[in-house]
Specification:
single chain; about 180 residues; alpha+beta; eight-stranded mixed β-sheet; about 35% helix; globular
């Protein structure tokens, strides 16, 4: 579990309780202010012709969960995700190879989660589904929150490729 201490008092308490077992790292937040719709539309088309990107409905959400590809922590059920959540999958012959979904959602925005099957990484699929999700957000005025651990070079690179700009750095504590 990762914890972001909101004050020095909370940080001290976390260290008091978990001390030597904590893993410290930095998180990076990214600003979506420079996202460009035209650039995102271009990125989502750079996939093979046998790949299809489709909106996650309850059936695809169920498939994602059953295959252990995604959880939906900010939603009470798959039906709740299907009603309020946002997500897109890249599929080849019905098999989900990459997806970008709202892990959590509030009135103004979403927190994005992306995953790609290891056999299909570095081929543009994560870029395509993320771009599709971002266009959806931009067109509807939904704030697409992106953050990454400073140790997650792939997420940082993808955010910047999509058009995000680094915004802030914060401390994150890994609690066993």
């Amino acid at each position: 579990m990762w914890v972001i201490p909101i004050s020095e008092a909370w940080r001290a308490l976390i260290f008091q309780v978990h001390g030597q077992h904590l893993k410290q790292t930095q998180g990076i937040t990214f600003s979506p202010e420079s996202l460009n719709r035209k650039h995102l539309l271009y990125l989502q088309k750079r996939i093979p012709s046998d790949c299809h990107i489709q909106r996650v409905d309850i059936s695809l959400a169920n498939q994602l969960r059953n295959e252990g590809l995604s959880s939906f922590p900010g939603f009470s059920s798959l039906a709740d995700f299907a009603e309020r959540g946002i997500g897109f999958c890249a599929t080849i012959e019905g098999r989900i190879i990459s997806h970008a979904v709202s892990l959590m959602q509030c009135r103004e925005g979403i927190h994005i989660g992306i995953e790609t099957d290891p056999g299909f990484r570095n081929k543009g699929f994560a870029t395509a589904v993320a771009a599709k999700l971002l266009v959806h957000c931009v067109e509807r005025g939904v704030y697409p929150h992106w953050s990454a651990s400073s140790e997650n070079a792939a997420s940082i690179h993808l955010a910047e490729k999509l058009g995000y700009v680094r915004d802030d750095v914060y401390e994150t504590l890994g609690v066993p």
